[in-house]
Amino acid sequence: MKFFSSLLAVTGVALGTTGTMGFPSPRAAQTSPATVINELQTFATQSSTLQASVEQLNALNFLFQGQIISQGINNITDSVGAFTENISGPPFNDAGAQQTISALAGFVNANSFLMSTVIEKHSLAASFLATGPISDALLRWASIWDSLAFPLVGLMPTEEDAANSQVNALRVTIAQANDVYSQ
Fold first, then answer.
1. Of 62, 51, 58, 71, residue with least CA distance to 173
2. pLDDT band at 183 (very low <50, low <70, confident <90, very high)
3. d(CA 49, CA 110)
4. 142: three-class secondary structure by DSSP
5. How many CB atoms lie within 10 A of CB 10?
6. Model-level pTM?
């Protein structure tokens, strides 16, 4: 039995289709505009949901609920990171790129609003000595966002300027939150 699974793995390596035990990995599938749009909308929903929860934090509930900031940012980071690993395929046509830019703008707006709310809660987090985990989560988020930016922009060459504008807008907002929480 071990010989058979080893044979599958070796064959998969030779053919360039390795996944678990030599079967095709999810990376072998090409990324479509619909997939990217769906994922960006999911990330926007995650950001909006977290923003609404963070907005509700106050001096009375922060001690027991304040960890939602770092946990929520880490959840978004994990989702985006998993998606980033699966981006592949040829660039989108112009219509697909335009639709994707619209979804990207929606996500950037939602996440920027989240980052603004997180910044607003800095003094509250500082009063509970909770800025460290939030700072760590923001640094991790900045790293993952940068790792998504290049392949995402690469899928939309006809909308490269608009894509870069959105990517950079969120990069600036994340950096502002990082600056506040790293003090």
1. 51
2. confident
3. 9
4. helix
5. 12
6. 0.82
